[in-house]
């Protein structure tokens, strides 16, 4: 590969930091701020055991408050950096930068963020990458604005040119485009040479139109971890069984079946009469560890065991995420990894 080649690194490659945004009273977390803050504190505590966390804050008051909460939890604050920028909400997986390596620097892809197809206002979030870049948050990087709606949670790469995604999500965002047209755009922008599409799989309570990061994730060039469902009486059973069959039919670049790791199914979590989207596939890979969303369910321990098998060289760290699924997302959704060298 040319030393100046542009490449989309896999999440398990070395990172310099994890980017998050602190929840506050002006975000959709306002009604349950205390509960969700506890998850963010646990998340930052887990991240900073392995690498720095960059925390976006809305203003000086939010920064002072977040710093006090994190410090009181005895977190190593030398591993925490605050950056001030306005934001609508805290789903950084979808509003943050998609980072490609370009020579000895980086190209930050800044796709349109439309609030998952216009479901929510996202005018501030759509400007977030540009504002962070212009503020000098990133090193040796250029920003490429792309007038095409795409969220980071909708795509998975193996770091070697294979992209995994769901057709439902991309079709919802671009109903007038064919699969061939969208495939061509994604392979060009993301420097991939093939896209593996899933036609099945969804979660009730999911605003994203079936983001791949709630359903199936690469665990290496030849391995996929996916959310299973073993309860025939559950409304998800048929779709997730069909997705499992699709995954079994996929082939690696050298024509072999992928090694598949099925995650257990948590009991239904109902809140104010609605089913919440509790997926163990929404884990986050950091340097030397996999941070796993835990829901206070008996399946948590089994999910840890599956991830330990899929990532034998990583420590598995459970982070309590039940408050997050009230807003229909989980651990991976509120984070964005920054490759090694992108920030100081």
Automatic annotation (TrEMBL):
Record carries keyword Cytoplasm: no
Alphabetic keyword roster: Hydrolase
Gene3D superfamilies in the record: L-arginine/glycine Amidinotransferase, Chain A (3.75.10.10)
Keyword Hydrolase set for record: yes
Region forming the signal peptide: none
Pfam family, one: PAD_porph
Entry protein name: Agmatine deiminase family protein
Organism: Lysobacter niastensis
